[in-house]
Amino acid sequence: MSKIALRNFWFQFHKWIGLLLAILIIPICITGSALVWHDALDKALNPQRHAFTSEQAKLEPSAYAAAAQSVLAPGERIVSLRFAEGEPVMVAAAQPRKEGPGSRPAGRPGRTVVYMDPGTAKVLDKADGNAGLVRFMHGLHGSLLVPGVGRQIVGWIGVAMVISTVSGIWLWWPTVGSWLKGLRWKRHRNFDTNLHHQMGFWIALPLFVLSLTGAWISFPAFFGAFSGEAQRARPGQPDRMAMMRAKPLAAPATSLDQAVATSRALTTGQVTSVNWPTDLKPEWSVSFNGKTVAVEDASGAAKLDKPRENRETTARLMRRIHDGTDMGLFWQIVIFIGGIIPAILAITGIIMWLRARKWRGELARRQKRKPAIA
């Protein structure tokens, strides 16, 4: 294949990836850009949740559980209690299970989240855990709100974007002369084409990284096999979705106060979270600054769990690179810009395609009107 033919191939490939996926790329990129500032966005949209009097919890866990239970609807059962300095105390409760065909659970398990003042246990807000603008953006970015296969669709879009960035650099590279010529603004007479070339070049590397890490998150088993971190289910342990669907016990034999008191006898520190016993795992789980105590509900017997391995795995690193967690302000700004520019590239690419179609149509009409030579 000649260099001209290869260039034309990459041009067609790059063009049709952009045109066919533009309607999906734009919302994925825009929501990803906004979610870099997830916490700030949530505070701006829900200021009532942060109108508390103290940044540290001053009451026993049972006080917050009781305050939350007083505003929960009939049938809702508390699943977990979370404490974090500078944040409201959060209680998550399982909504009554919806049954699908054949008495099987339907859809994602519903959660109600109650936000409380750490100092007084006053209820500040109550919301559906799957509702709200921030939750909507997470769903749109991660799965396009498509149940079941949405995450895989987003993953394949990430793969397509990886290929698009490589082909874009190929097309950007000047055919004659030094690569520095590619940095000229006026490579074309149209503003949108020049904008497409320049933005595409400067965002290519960050976009390649974000697309690759996005695909990695969508296909953890596939990429995990390459990194040596393939996910393996532990024998006898329920999977994550089964744990999410587990139903909290209606009347635990061991009370919350008893579970916390028993746990404190085995470790020290502040309680950071409590998980309620369920029909799948009938034990309390009480965490203290990284250490967790499991309390068997039926007998009240407690044991200190082995601390979870907190090493930096490749999968965790890929997620942090993708969403900017603990990556510093500079990279977070790069991610933000890396979400805005692809949307602009998609729009300018469509404009360029429409203009080319119009030009080819006019050329064809002129050729038809041209008299035949005898």
List its traits:
alpha+beta, 12% strand, eight-stranded antiparallel beta sheet, 374 residues, 50% helix
Strand order of the largest sheet: 4-3-2-1-5-6-7-8
Main beta sheet strand tally, sense and closure: 8 strands, antiparallel
- Average pLDDT across residues? 87
Shape, per Cα inertia axes: elongated
- Beta-strand residue fraction: 5-15%
The poorly predicted ranges are: none
Portion in helices: 40-55%
Query: What is the SS-derived class?
Result: alpha+beta
Count of DSSP H/I helices:
11
- Count of individual beta strands: 8
Distance between the termini: 38 Å
SSE run = HHHEEEEHHHHHHEEEEHH
Rg from alpha-carbon coordinates: 27 Å
How would you describe what is shown here?
- It is a single chain.
- The chain is of the alpha+beta class and 374 residues long.
- The chain has eleven helices and eight strands.
- It has helices spanning 3-35, 38-45, 61-69, 133-143, 150-172, 191-218, 220-227, 240-245, 256-264, 314-323, 328-369, and strands at residues 77-82, 89-94, 111-116, 123-128, 271-275, 283-288, 291-296, 302-304.
- A hairpin with a 6-residue loop joins strand 1 (77-82) and strand 2.
- Helix 1 (3-35) runs antiparallel to helix 4 and helix 6 runs antiparallel to helix 10 (314-323).
- 23% of the residues are buried.
- The mean pLDDT is 87.
